[in-house]
Each structure stands twice: as C-alpha cells, then as structure tokens.
Automatic annotation (TrEMBL):
GO MF entry, a single one: kinase activity
Record lineage: Bacteria, Bacillati, Bacillota, Clostridia, Eubacteriales
SUPFAM superfamilies linked to this entry: Actin-like ATPase domain
UniProt-listed GO biological process terms: carbohydrate metabolic process
Coiled coil region boundaries: none
Domain Carbohydrate kinase FGGY N-terminal: from-to ranges: 4-248
The keyword Transferase appears for this protein: yes
Cited Gene3D superfamilies: 3.30.420.40
Similarity comment text for this entry: Belongs to the FGGY kinase family.
Highest taxon of source: Bacteria
Designated name of the protein: Gluconate kinase
Keywords attached to this entry: Kinase, Transferase
Start and end residues of each Carbohydrate kinase FGGY C-terminal domain: 257-452
Length: 509
C-alpha cells in the first residue's frame, strides 16, 4: 500500500518538495531558488519556465534523496503563492512573465477603487482587499498599458495553473487561489460577472474553478519520465500557501490562530463560512467548501530585520565572521538584554508600504520618541516590537469579526529567537505554541491530499501530524506595558499617515 505523500510549495523565492510518511515525519526534501525580476521600480516578476523547472527538479530530487519507490507514493499535493498572473496564448506559451504579489504597478488603480468605494464592494463579494497585489488591478493595468498582449491573451492564469497545464494540459484553478484574485465570489464559488465586466472579459479567459481536493492522473509522458513518477500517480490541486500554513499548523479549530513571520508575515484564523470586514481590513480565502481562512499579511517581517542588519549591523556581521557565528544571534542578544518597551522607543515597520490592515502601499517607516537615552540595543528591540504591533493590529481586526483567540500557533524564521516569540506572545496577550515542523504549507498540502484521496474523512483527523515544540505563556506585566504602547503605535499611524504618504510621493518622483 502506498505509504509516502509529497507536498510541494511554490513560493515567492523558491519551490520546495517534501516527502512525508503517514505520521507526518519528513523523509526527504529538495528546494530550488529563483530570482525576482524588476525591470522598473514597481515591477516584480518571475520567469514561469524557471518556476516550472524548479517544480520538476525538486519533485525528482526529493524522490531520489529519499530513495522512494514511485509505487509507494500515494499522491502529490500542491501549495502555491497567491496573487500571481500570467497572460498565455492558445498554445499555453507565456505572453508575459509571472507578475507576482509584490508587484505595485497597479497602485493607482487600487487607490482609485478604494476612493470611489467600488473596491470595498468588490472586496465584500470576493474577500480580496483593494490593493495592487490583487490580479484584478494588475489586469486593469495590463489592459490599459499593454493592450495588444491583453487582446491576444487566450487565458489569464496563476503560476500554479501554469504548472498544472504543463503537467496535464488542462486549465484548472482551485477555489483557494481563485479566491485571492479579486475576481471570484467566495459566497457562490463562481467567477464574479460584475468584476469580469469591469475587465471586459468573460469566464472563457479564465480557468475552470475546482475544489481544493480536486485530483488528476495521467501526467504528461515526458514529465513522467523526468520526475520518475508513475502515470497513475494522483496529483491533488491543493490550495494557497497562506491557507495551507494554517492547516499545517493545526490552526483550523475555533479559538486558534496561526502567526507567521518569515520574510513577510501573517495572522490567520479558520472560520466555517465566508466572512468579510465592513472596513476591508482583512482577507477571506477558501481552504475547503466548509473552511475559510480570515486574516491579513504584512509586507514587513524578517525582511526589515535583514535591512537593519545590513545597514546598521556592520560590527555584528564582522564579529560573527570572526567567531564563525550568525550575525542575527548577536543582534538577538540586544533584544534579549533590553527591557520590554525599548525605553519608550516605538517603530512603525512600514519600509515597503503595508498590506493588512491598512492596505496602503504609500505608508513608510519611522522611529518615534528618540531621545539621547536610546542606544543601538533599543533600536534593535523596538524594530522587532514594531513588527509584533503590526501583527497584533491584524489580530485585533480578526477578533472583532470572528472569534476570540485563545492560542496562537507560530511558525517562520522568527521562532529561532525565543525572546522575539515571547514578545509576540506578550504583545498579543495570548499563549503562543511553536511546533517542530517549519514546513507548514507543505504539510498542509499533504493533509489536504489525505482528505482528497479518502485517507481521512475530516481534516481534524490530521492533527497528530503536527508536533508541538514549545509553549510560551503571557508575561502579564509586559502585556500591560505593551497595551499602552500599542495605543501610542495606533495613534501615531493615524496622525502620521498623511505625512508618510507625502514622503512616499516625494520618493516615488
């Protein structure tokens, strides 16, 4: 009987393929990175062929490294980044690169729809906030700025759709990826005709929508030989990386949230029906027909810690090289040895604009309250506290909409710093649990694959595959301190937003 499951995560900077056994233990893994192409300041693209090659390579390599017999593979299931769009011709050849979520070329379209109120109405039906990340606004830009490509495009698809078309010759998109396009009604699970009317297209320009448990067999013969798989291996279409990170973290129960801080970050909870926010602060994406993921992403997670290290941590980088150590470990010592609250120094972590809960690409960062008593260690700790305030801002919006959150499953690179995790715990005034598996989107894809292939009847049956690692409880004195500082943080954003937007306009020119 087949005993191995493969989860593939098509991420922003790399693709990972991981072989799991039935208990959720990792048998083998492979990854391949690829670059982001930026031909203009606001453009962020990738080569679809490079990503397809990464999927094929990592799939083949994970099987080889694990010495896995293809007959022992039950299924291959997919996780993928959201908000990507590619125009393809009738032969399935790309007319554009893959325009990814970080692309901001359509910022003026998003701003216009935010101001005229149409964006909020579209969001209320689709669950995708009004922001240039949304393929809806990317397609508006393409229509007006590259009309020949727009006119000649046979389909507009995501990177996962491109991979599945290459494997099977069919254009399909799962409800989860579709629900992050801004063009899909999450209440009736169909393409939104009113939105398509705004774009001047119909459903034939988009892929057929399918459940996240939809499966296919008979992989393309050439790819079958390249990967070493059998043609009758089951492929499960899967869902988006954010939704599957929740599933792979055990955060699909009432009262449980998932918090991720890697390059960027996110806070998400599962809900049993679609829900949108009257203020448009959070997204709502589909996991399955009876599980919806509500939450928000931040642009500014670990990437701004790296910015701080690269620009202000020269001494720590040099010392780390001399000691054959890690520069982040030295910076983390500043965090560990500095009092919570950073002596009243507050950081607004908006170096790359911000998504949730403000959805404002023109926000900018700031240190507030600097005095001559502040030293490097205060600036270091204030930076990670600012990221935690940003995450808490999303959690507060989520709690208003759905449920009280009693515990948070944390994952991502920030969990390597115990004090950072404890700070998030104190800022959110909620117990935080870190589990030993850092590959939650791949594990989530496998769990969904188990549901799709009938190995389990309910996703909750997969909970034992997630192994808890450490539990952080709230330090009440610090939680009270952070409540005061969080109010100042919120007030600072409200008062400084016009000024920050003016500076962004100056910078953009």
């Amino acid at each position: 009987m087949p005993q191995y499951y493969i989860g593939i995560d098509i991420g922003t900077t790399s693709t990972k393929s991981i072989v799991f056994n039935k208990d959720g233990h990792i048998i083998s893994k492979a990854s391949r990175e690829y670059p982001i192409i930026s031909t203009m300041p606001s453009f962020r693209e990738q080569d679809p062929e490079e990503i397809l090659e990464a999927v094929i390579h990592t799939l083949k390599e994970s099987i080889r490294v694990g010495n896995i017999n293809p007959n022992d593979i039950s299924f291959v299931s997919f996780s993928s980044m959201m908000h990507s769009v590619i125009a393809v011709d009738k032969e399935g050849k790309p007319l554009t690169n893959c325009i990814i979520w970080a692309d901001n070329r359509s910022v003026t379209y998003a701003e216009e729809f935010k101001k005229n109120g149409q964006g909020l109405e579209i969001y209320k039906r689709t669950g995708t906030p009004t922001h240039p990340m949304s393929p809806l606004y990317k397609l508006m830009w393409l229509r007006d700025n590259q009309p020949e490509i727009y006119k000649n495009a046979y389909k507009f698809i995501s990177i996962k759709e491109y991979v599945f078309y290459s494997f099977f010759g069919d254009y399909i998109v799962d409800y989860s990826i579709a629900s992050a396009t801004g063009m899909f009604n999450i209440f009736d699970l169909k393409w939104d005709k009113e939105v398509l009317g705004l774009l001047g297209i119909n459903e034939t320009k988009l892929s057929k929508t399918v459940s996240t448990t939809y499966s296919l067999k008979n992989i393309n013969g050439e790819l079958c030989s390249q990967t070493g798989l059998n043609q009758n291996t089951t492929f499960v279409v899967g869902a988006s990386d954010g939704c599957l990170a929740n599933l792979g973290s055990n955060a699909i129960q009432k009262g449980v949230a998932a918090a991720t801080i890697g390059t960027s970050g996110a806070v998400r909870v599962a809900f049993d029906q679609p829900v949108t926010d009257p203020e448009g602060r959070v997204f709502c994406y589909v996991l399955t027909e009876d599980k919806y993921i509500v939450g928000g992403p931040i642009n500014n997670g670990g990437i701004i810690y790296r910015w701080f290290r690269d620009n202000f941590g020269e001494l720590e980088v040099k010392r780390a090289m001399e000691m054959d150590s890690d520069s982040y470990s030295l910076l983390n010592e500043y965090i560990d040895n500095t009092q919570p609250g950073s002596n009243g120094l507050v950081f607004l972590p908006f170096l790359a604009g911000e998504r949730a809960p403000y959805w404002n690409a023109n926000l900018r960062g700031a240190y507030i309250g600097i005095s001559d008593a502040h030293k490097k260690e205060h600036f270091t700790r204030a930076l990670i506290e600012g990221i935690c305030y940003d995450m808490n801002d999303i959690l507060e919006a989520v709690k208003e909409l759905v449920v009280e959150v009693e515990s948070i499953y944390a994952n991502g690179g920030f969990t390597r710093s115990e004090e950072w995790v404890q700070t998030l715990c104190d800022v959110m005034d909620t117990k935080v649990i870190v589990h030993e598996n850092y590959e939650s989107p791949c594990l989530g894809a496998v769990m969904l694959g188990m549901l799709a292939t009938g190995l389990v009847e309910h996703l909750e049956e997969c909970q034992d595959m997630v192994k808890d690692f450490n539990v952080y409880n709230v330090r009440k004195e610090n939680a009270l301190l952070y409540q005061r500082l969080f109010k100042i943080y919120k007030k600072a954003i409200a008062n400084l937003t016009p000024l920050l937007e003016s500076l962004a306009e100056f910078q953009n020119k």
